[in-house]
Design brief:
The structure holds 3 protein chains of 3 kinds. By secondary structure, chain A is of the alpha/beta class. Chain A has 4 domains: about 35 residues, no CATH class; about 250 residues, 3-Layer(aba) Sandwich (Aspartate Aminotransferase, domain 2), CATH 3.40.640.10; about 120 residues, Alpha-Beta Complex (Aspartate Aminotransferase, domain 1), CATH 3.90.1150.10; about 30 residues, no CATH class. Helices cover about 35% and strands about 10% of the residues of chain A. Chain A has a 7-stranded mixed beta sheet with strand order 1-7-6-5-4-2-3, sandwiched between helices. In chain A, a hairpin with a 2-residue loop joins β8 and β9. Chain A is globular and about 70 Å long. Chain B is of the alpha/beta class. Chain B has 2 domains: about 200 residues, Rossmann fold (3-Layer(aba) Sandwich), CATH 3.40.50.10330; about 160 residues. Chain B has a 5-stranded parallel beta sheet with strand order 3-2-1-4-5, with helices on both faces. In chain B, strands 10-9-8-11-13 form a 5-stranded mixed beta sheet, with helices on both faces. The longest helix of chain B is centred in the middle third of the chain and has 15 residues. Chain B starts with 7 loop residues before the first strand and ends with a strand. In chain B, about 55% of the residues are buried. Chain C is an alpha/beta fold. Chain C folds into 2 domains: about 110 residues, Aspartate Aminotransferase, domain 1 (Alpha-Beta Complex); about 270 residues, Type I PLP-dependent aspartate aminotransferase-like (Major domain) (Aspartate Aminotransferase, domain 2, 3-Layer(aba) Sandwich). Chain C contains 13 helices and 15 strands. In chain C, α5 runs parallel beside α11 and α6 packs across α7. The longest helix of chain C has about 40 residues. Classes of the chains: A alpha/beta, B alpha/beta, C alpha/beta. Chains A and B meet through α7, β3, α8 and α12 of A and α7, α13, β15 and β16 of B. β3 of chain A pairs parallel with β16 of chain B.
């Protein structure tokens, strides 16, 4: 066991008011040049609008200087931990986001290009997209990739749309109306399937930590449109029967879609197409070094076989003798989002993949799995921590699902309270688990290839420290955070229509008015 | 406003003999003779110490809440062992050594309007408790008994104590849900037959799962999903098809979606959205099946209680013969996804009394969990 | 090119042999390969990945990326009049700094305290947007305007159980296609029919007779845009809203919020749900990567419960007088999950959202009024100038915002020809409408914003004059 002690930490605490309370009447943050005489000759602006549609009262926005606005948002940024500390958020693969790409993204050749420009003026961008598609083809064995989906869930949705297109073209739409997934799959799989008009059949975890082939057989049949499955799951368990699964699903007449959300541990080790899958999805904002940004802009790269490629969203980038062109697939399902996708994220992913190369990518999956198994050994030595399916021996993949059930049982302190206390040491909360929980008080860290052994040791030391605190002084953990910008948020009113407020004006009406009334009484 | 802790009342009652039979291989401790046998076999009481373990979790709240207990082994001793200073209920008659002791104490808690009743015992004790309080007072079981088919127990004594502490401290994670109280007929059990009934519905606190700032939005909770599902089932059910409704809180949603309350603890039959037979027994069900028209008949049942039983516990009216006549394909099982997820192993049990029907039901079944959503679950014959 | 420096990679701390050996030792595993024991051999890919050579040196990588990016021709180097869903507006410098802050850039899903500053920025975004559109409930943004329309129409359909939406026939084809995707194709379980309502030939506004003819008890929602996809301001919003309500339909209005310093907030003319883009609030175009959409409504439970978005609410903390922010309506179901279920949420455009918050705070009420006025005047000036060129005609010459339709029929040339010629002169002409809207003939949609000067317009006019002469 390493002898690292958690470092002392305190988050910036600015007591920063909501922006709506800042500023002073008449201040300006930006001005726009008065129009030239020939422009002004069109007459007063208001008269250019139909009278009924003119705004009468100005919006109640703050009036701030440029400097004050900047300072406000910089202060807010300082009240975010992000990856400045250690963040091992499982399933999200917290990896380095090369700042070169951020700098490149601000260049006008990336920032100031319009999606409807003639392709002749976008050749650099289209070449990046094309080049990156070749990389994903090599990693997956698929024939084509689209980048229109604006996230992993959107790529799952793209699969649902492509499935619909394929069913329509083969005269099976309405007949095959069921999508099979696992209870361990990311909720976006059932959710997008349902939003796309399909019924969802979920498979439970059985012995071995994954659903049985018998359960799959019971689920599939003439109504099966597709299987949407991830592997390994976020407990770090790899389903060794996946080839047989895919065979069975295709035999039943359905499509097999590989949700590669947990790709980091198997990069270069397996290829979706080799396992028989018809389609797969990669998350460029996770596995391929794009920034999280607190949740996007993101890209779900959706890849498929030639047979399904004719249904892909439009447009697709093709290489021609005279350069790169935009084409519409023969039976395109249309669009899942406007334009071509978050191509600035594709640019980042391409730069990342080039920076890594084949060996680097292979090494990254090696290190991810090694680091996780190292972390597992250290974490399981912590009192109160156990892992899911403890009876399943052998190494896990790039993640392991842990449980603080014992800690909760023995101290009353659960994983939410532990996560809050961890932030007091400059370590951000880990991913817990998708609902419903199979194991009590779950948490799921992922070390990946970025974080050093010392970072992992520190992370584990923080868990150990907090668990020790839970046994020795549970109230200290319960009342955490103590070193954060704010105290513990009391969010229960957020479910109450009389109390929730998603805007300042709702807050003023519901809370300020009420407290003023109380004061008056 | 957040409810401040303080001024809350907790009633605690221990069934000192609960669990005695288990250690010595007897199935339960109902009845004085069994109890005597258990003692003769050297059974040591465990209910009191287990209750004390649960009560330890309440120590931090001790000066803010009032704890009420019956004297002696029925509560006082456990509270003292946990370092608590409870108020002892005065004027209770001397213990009779059976369920009346529990019922008398619980009746006093009802008068005292306690905010929570924590009891240590098994299914028999739960049945005594719920028989008095119904859904008027939330209850929570400290598991100490042999039989625990009811869904009113904490997963362990400590877990029960912590949930109780959270409730009394006004923690927002605590919600109340309705849960089934079931009990087996112990005499039948000892003779090798299993016979269980649904005795009532209790209100039970449980800690709602943490909602992490979800990457994907949370799955809908069971309550809402099942209500929506009930509406869909009623909407899509053919007007000329008999609907045989199993008992319990889940199928009650379907009854309510049709606009009637029906029989919570029994089996009802509906046709065209109307209740045509309330609290039907096997014979009535078979007669109705005889007369079923072209639309045929279907069974809508739920996993009842806390142990994953589908048929054979609490809904014996839906007998092997009824099931055989309706047929496996016409059985619709409705249960919340979260409930299914916590079954370990992920298996549903049947015990219809007919090996043939049990075998027919065995295998994988698609359980309805929400509109448009099913979970494939293995169904196996119960082993005990 | 291989990395220098003994094999350790700058983005992988544990790529040193020492780190690997130490971890292997700690777990007692003979090799890294042995850790992959779960994967059956016949699943393994044993070939060599066919990837281009690594550029692990930042120097080399930068050079390679720049070589590619420089093949693009951008809107700063050229004079662009493209709009249609992504517009060239000024992005204030501080927005780039705020969006580029490492803390915002790298945050994921921590706790309400570790993410506090970001959550506050999100709440501020919703608050300021709420002021612009006149609504009290604003969800966190979705992928794009088109996705927001799709979500809003599905919300409406769940609310009233109807399965038809009326939309302007002149709706932007990109947004329309996304909407149709969200409405599912015919034959799919949740299909919602998308019914176009014609525009008035003279004004470009909705044809009221056609609207009345198509409104029925099947109508889940009436969707209009202000300004519409041809730039035209729909003056009869209030009347359309009344008609929709009378038919029991929801009234959904799509807006470009940069117009809302001068245009009436949709709440004022009866919108039930407001959607729109957030790209114009300080997001770079990025070939469409700047897209983002929002959904807002009155703060009524029946609407709030239908939001497919993440929603963030201000909430007290355990320290008196202090506030924080927490997810609201996270389960989005306790109201009685609707039979057909909700849409999904996932990653969205939350970093863009923070930049938008900084943008709105920077502009303030006067900034929004001023930018709106400047756009009105500049675009009308441009329309007047172009309309004065022989053979060119502005299709809907009055009451538009930022965009206007220029018809080239009188020149005998196609828009494609004109735009090719303009491109040769360093000008990106307006979006070609001829394929999507044949009724408009050879027409193009020109976007003129605060970045265009009188000189730019003169340059465009001069070029067009030469081309069509």
């Amino acid at each position: 066991m390493s002898d690292v002690t958690p470092r002392e930490y305190h988050q910036a605490r600015w007591n920063e008011p909501v922006v709506m309370e800042l500023g002073a009447p008449g201040r300006r943050g930006i001005t726009f040049a008065a129009p030239e005489a020939e422009v002004a000759a069109v007459g007063p602006a208001a008269e250019l609008l139909p009278p009924a549609m003119r705004r009468k009262a100005l919006p109640l926005l703050p009036e701030m200087t440029e400097h004050d606005t900047l300072r406000h948002y910089v202060r807010l940024s300082q009240q975010v931990l992000g990856m400045v500390g250690i963040s091992l958020f499982g399933t999200c693969t917290m990896k380095y986001n090369p700042r070169l790409s951020e700098a490149l993204g601000l260049r006008p050749q990336m920032a100031e290009i319009h999606p409807l420009q003639d392709p002749a003026t976008l050749q650099g961008l289209l070449e990046i997209v094309w080049n990156f598609e070749q990389i994903l083809k090599a990693l997956s064995g698929m024939d084509r990739f689209t980048f229109q989906a604006a996230g992993g869930a959107d790529a799952a949705y793209t699969h649902v749309c492509v499935t619909r297109g394929w069913l329509e073209a083969t005269g099976q739409l309405g007949q095959r109306d069921e999508i099979v997934t696992s209870i361990q799959a990311h909720p976006c799989n059932p959710a997008t399937a349902a939003a796309g008009g399909f019924k969802v059949i979920s498979l439970p975890l059985e012995e071995g930590g994954y659903p049985s082939i018998e359960a799959l057989k019971a689920a599939i049949g003439p109504r099966t449109a597709a299987l949407m499955i991830n592997n390994p799951d976020d407990m770090g368990i790899y389903n060794p029967h996946m080839k047989e699964w895919v065979r069975l699903v295709k035999e039943a007449g359905g499509l097999a879609f590989y949700d590669h959300a947990n790709f980091n541990g198997v990069m270069g080790k397996i290829r979706a197409r080799d396992l028989g899958f018809d389609a797969c999805m990669f998350m460029l904002h996770k596995t391929f070094g794009g920034p999280k940004g607190g949740g996007g802009p993101a890209t779900g790269a959706y890849g498929c076989t030639e047979e399904l490629a004719r249904f892909l969203p439009k447009p697709m980038v093709n290489k021609t003798a005279s350069g790169f062109a935009l084409d519409i697939p023969e039976k395109s399902v249309g669009k899942v989002r406007e334009f071509m996708g978050n191509l600035h994220i594709v640019m980042r992913a391409y730069a990342w993949a080039r920076g890594m190369g084949a060996d680097g990518i292979n090494e990254a999956s090696d290190i991810s799995v090694l680091a996780n198994n190292y972390m597992e050994k250290e974490l399981l030595a912590v009192r109160g921590v156990s892992k899911s399916h403890p009876d399943i021996g052998g190494p896990r993949m790039e993640m392991t699902r842990y449980s603080l059930g014992t800690l909760k049982e023995e101290t009353g302190i659960g994983v939410g309270e532990v996560a809050n206390r961890m932030t007091d040491y400059g370590v951000d909360a880990p991913w817990l688990a998708h609902e419903p929980w199979h194991f009590p008080e779950p948490f799921t860290p992922e070390a990946g290839e970025l974080w050093s052994k010392e970072d992992i040791d520190t992370w584990v030391a923080v868990v150990r420290k907090v668990c020790e605190e839970a046994y020795a002084n549970p109230d200290l953990v319960k009342s955490a955070p103590h070193n954060a910008a704010i105290g513990k948020v009391q969010g229960e009113g957020c479910e109450d229509p009389a109390r929730w407020a998603t805007t300042w004006r709702a807050y003023l009406r519901k809370h300020r008015a009420a407290s003023q009334q109380q004061a008056a009484e | 406003m957040r409810r401040e802790a303080g001024g809350q009342k907790l009633g605690v009652v221990v069934n000192p003999i609960a669990g005695l039979g288990g250690r010595v291989g007897l199935k339960g401790t109902d009845g004085p003779e069994t109890l005597a046998r258990a003692r003769a076999l050297g059974a040591v009481p465990t209910a009191g110490p287990r209750c004390a373990l649960a009560l330890q979790s309440l120590a931090p709240l001790a000066d803010r809440i009032e704890i009420l207990v019956p004297p002696g082994p029925m509560g006082e001793e456990s509270a003292a062992a946990a370092g608590l200073r409870p108020r002892i209920l005065a004027g209770l008659p001397p213990p009779a050594g059976d369920g009346t002791d529990t019922r008398r104490a619980v009746a006093r808690f009802l008068e005292e309007k306690v905010d929570l009743l924590l009891f240590a015992g098994g299914d028999g004790t739960a049945r005594d408790v719920v028989g008095v309080v119904g859904t008027e007072i939330p209850i929570l079981g400290v598991p100490t008994g042999v039989k625990m088919h009811s869904a009113v127990f904490g997963t362990s004594p400590r877990a029960a104590g912590q949930t109780a502490a959270h409730l009394l401290a006004g923690e927002p994670v605590i919600r109340l849900r309705e849960a089934e109280v079931m009990d087996l007929d112990e005499e039948a059990l000892r003779q090798g037959r299993v016979s269980a009934s649904l005795y009532g519905i209790a209100r039970v606190p449980h800690a709602r799962g943490l909602v992490q700032a979800s990457k994907a939005g949370a799955r809908p909770d069971d309550e809402a999903a099942l209500d929506a599902l009930a509406r869909v089932i009623v909407r899509d059910w053919p007007a000329d098809r008999l609907m045989i409704l199993g008992c319990g809180t889940t199928t009650r949603r379907i009854r309510r979606a049709m606009g009637f309350e029906g029989t919570l603890l029994g089996v009802d039959v509906a046709l065209g959205g109307r209740l045509i037979a309330a609290d039907a027994n096997e014979a009535q069900l078979l007669r109705l099946l005889d007369r079923a028209g072209e639309g045929g008949a279907g069974i809508v049942a739920s996993v009842t209680g806390g142990q994953g039983f589908l048929f054979g516990r609490g809904n014996q009216q839906i007998s092997a013969e009824v099931i055989r006549r309706v047929g496996r394909d016409n059985i619709m099982v409705v249960t919340g996804a979260a409930k299914l997820a916590t079954l370990d192993p992920a298996v549903l049990h049947v015990d219809t009394g007919s090996a043939e029907v049990d075998a027919m039901l065995a295998g994988y079944m698609k359980i309805y969990t929400a509109p448009g959503q099913r979970m494939v679950m293995r169904v196996g014959a119960a082993t005990g | 090119m291989e990395a220098q420096g003994g094999g350790a990679h700058p983005w992988m701390a544990n790529s040193t042999e020492e780190a690997k050996a130490a971890m292997l030792r700690a777990i007692g595993a003979p090799s890294i390969e042995s850790l992959f024991a779960q994967i059956p051999e016949d699943h393994r890919f044993r070939g060599r990945l066919d990837l281009p050579p690594a550029l692990a040196s930042e120097v080399a990588l930068k050079r390679h990326m720049l070589e590619l990016l420089k093949k693009n021709s951008d809107c700063e180097q050229n004079l662009s009049f493209l709009g249609s869903g992504i517009w060239q507006h000024h992005v204030p410098a501080i927005v780039d700094e705020v969006v580029g802050r490492t803390e915002f850039l790298t945050s994921v899903w921590g706790t309400p305290s570790s993410d506090h500053g970001r959550n506050q920025a999100w709440f501020e975004f919703c608050s300021m947007l709420g002021e612009l559109v006149g609504m009290e409930f604003v969800g966190l943004p979705v992928y794009s305007w088109g996705c927001a329309i799709g979500n809003a129409v599905r919300m409406a359909s769940r609310l009233n159980g109807r399965r038809e939406v009326l939309v302007p026939a002149g709706m932007d084809p990109e947004r329309l296609e996304v909407l149709k995707q969200y409405c599912e194709p015919e034959g799919s379980h949740g299909h919602i029919a998308v019914v176009p309502v014609a525009w008035e030939a003279a004004s470009g506004m909705l044809d009221m007779a056609d609207l009345k003819a198509k409104l029925s008890s099947r109508t889940a929602a009436v969707y209009i845009e202000n300004p519409g996809s041809f730039g035209v301001v729909e003056a009869r919003g209030a009347e359309i809203g009344k008609l929709a309500r009378a038919a029991g339909a929801e009234f959904i209005v799509g807006v470009d919020p940069i117009s809302l310093g001068v245009l009436a907030p949709p709440a004022e003319y009866g919108a039930d749900i407001v959607v729109g883009t957030i790209q114009t609030l300080g997001a770079h175009m990025m070939a469409g990567g700047g897209a983002g959409g929002f959904i807002a409504s009155r703060d009524e439970e029946r609407y709030a419960r239908e939001y497919p978005t993440l929603n963030i609410s201000i909430a007290p903390t355990d320290r008196p007088g202090e506030h924080g922010f927490a997810l609201s309506l996270a389960h989005q179901s306790s109201y009685g999950m609707r039979e057909e279920g909700k849409d999904w949420t996932g990653n969205s455009v939350y970093l863009t959202t923070i930049g938008c918050a900084a943008y709105m705070a920077l502009l303030g009420p006067q900034g929004f009024r001023e930018v709106g006025e400047v756009i009105l005047q500049r675009s009308h000036h441009a329309a007047k100038v172009l309309g004065g060129i022989k053979g060119l005609r502005v299709a809907f010459p009055c009451g538009f915002f930022k965009e206007f339709v220029v018809n080239f029929d009188g020149t005998g040339r196609t828009v494609a020809q004109v735009n090719a010629a303009l491109r040769a002169k360093g000008i990106f002409g307006g979006r070609d409408l001829s394929a999507d809207f044949p009724a408009l003939g050879q027409s193009a949609l020109y976007a003129v914003t605060e970045v265009h000067t009188a000189e730019d317009i003169a340059r465009l006019a001069g070029a067009l004059q030469e081309i069509v002469a």
